[in-house]
Please model this.
Amino acid sequence: MQNNEFESKFALMLTGDEEAFTYVYNETKKPVYTIINRIVNNRCESEDIMQDLFLRLITKTDLDIIKNPRAYIFMMARNMAIDSLRKDHPDYLDEDVTDRENSSFDEHICLTSSIEDAILQLDIKEREVISLHINAGMKFREISEYLGEPPGTLRSRYSLAIKKLRSIMKEG
Model:
């Protein structure tokens, strides 16, 4: 996906161009869904959040000042997924408690050779940085700008998460 082409299609989408919306949707739907689903771990809820996200995109009027539309969409997906978790499970994102200790979502997860199952065993901040970096293709600098955390911290978290995934996959 060419970034300049995406940005121009995004700008056209804001004017109501349906073809441009289709292009933006098709270019981002898979990583957007992956980001959302890795956070909420519920297919139906992920689809609902994704639908809401694209609905918001076509109805917002103040998006013409966005510097990186692709990154904006991915961060919007992340934020909406986290908001959904906070609404339905307020204690789910408590920093002192890991997902496995606190989440009824993860009770069914056991060690397997599936990468998706392994990713779900990471804590939410690790899943988040992996999804934004791998699935959304964002650089640590871009992730840093949106999360308000230093790029070094994010690289470290990413590296630790990859090591955990390797360990989980070996055990499975």
In short: The chain has nine helices and no strands. The CA atoms of residues 20 and 139 lie 25 Å apart.
